[in-house]
Structure of Histidine kinase domain-containing protein:
Amino acid sequence: MLDEGKSREELVDELKELKAILKSNQESTKKIIENERILSKTALELVDLPPHVDIYDFIAKKLGDLIENSLIAVSMYDEPSDSILVRSVIGENQRLIELSQKIMGGGLTDIKLPLRSFYEFYDDKEHQKNTILSGKLLKMEDGLYQVFAGRLPQKITRMVELTMNMGDMYGTGFESKGKLYGTVYIFLKKGNKLNNNELVQSLISLFAVAIQRKQAENEIKKALKEKELLLKEIHHRVKNNLMIISSLLNLQSAHIKDEGARNVFRESQNRAKSMAMIHERLYRSTDLKNIDFGEYIRSLTTDLYRTLVADPDRIRLDIDVEDVKIDINTVVPLGLIVNELVTNCMKHAFPDGETGYIKLELYQKSQKIVLKVIDNGIGFPEDLDYKKTSSLGLQLVNNLTKQIDGEFELDRNQGTSFALIFEEKE
């Protein structure tokens, strides 16, 4: 039934108004959803931004795609010089770019403006500072003259605006947590309006956080690179010092008559050399978290073989090692273990000119890494407990195995097989 107090015409008008409101609400909802989609997509793109892509170019292009018939200028804030440096200019108005080269003797990306000039342009300097740091998009009422903070004569900026048919201009700073990271200026053609201000403002806030994150990442990378270079230099110096110690032990052993004492010096010399080789490899490595231990074993055992085996035809050396990657904290004790086990085989497995072979294996099995040193020599004495021995070499092996949380196994059948099983720590 019709409301007795209202005519049919009034009710029809109310119905039309309700439909218009509903349509407006639907359009607003649709606009909000689309804005959220653009913001989400842009946020994901910023997170996955490749290292070679300049973030200022990315920002300028994103805003340029969103705002038709515009020219976008994005700048960074350079803290050491307290200046605004134009980093990227994108837009259809190429004539403005060409004209700027004639007026200023360079491109727009060559512009460098001291930040203080923006404060000095206004009588209320503190207000202007807060305006830049507010991150709110503001209309530049004085046009290019305001954009360049009065550093170009107003007659010239006005002439450029008329020649280029330039209309409204907007600008703001990229601000995050009270700190300025750069600025953005939007130049529209005359007659065009800046639509969807809310989305543009939200994107600018998003870009400010992204620039802050990017700068923080760059600072961390720089600090890591400096620490890595310092660490490499330390490894280089340690290697040199160990080689000096090895040389001194070699010189000293030449003056020792007692064969037993001379052997002790030689063993110490080999230990110093094996550690020096590790530090040399660490110095040359590009990734201290993933060192190719297989290549180190090849170098170390070949060097020990040349030093300790006088007749290569008597003892054959077989090296079957995979290119297993080892962390820096594991590689040093593991290198010493290899040195002790290989030295022990070469010195004691083949007495009185006996012949045979020594084999080294290194491979990965599931989550474990297995190192084996095998020989077909006289075998390990049955009455010798390798875990409780006075031998300095075996004591070192046991202690270093505990250090890397490994397990040490000995097989005395058909010679001797030492097996070290450990799990590389994350």
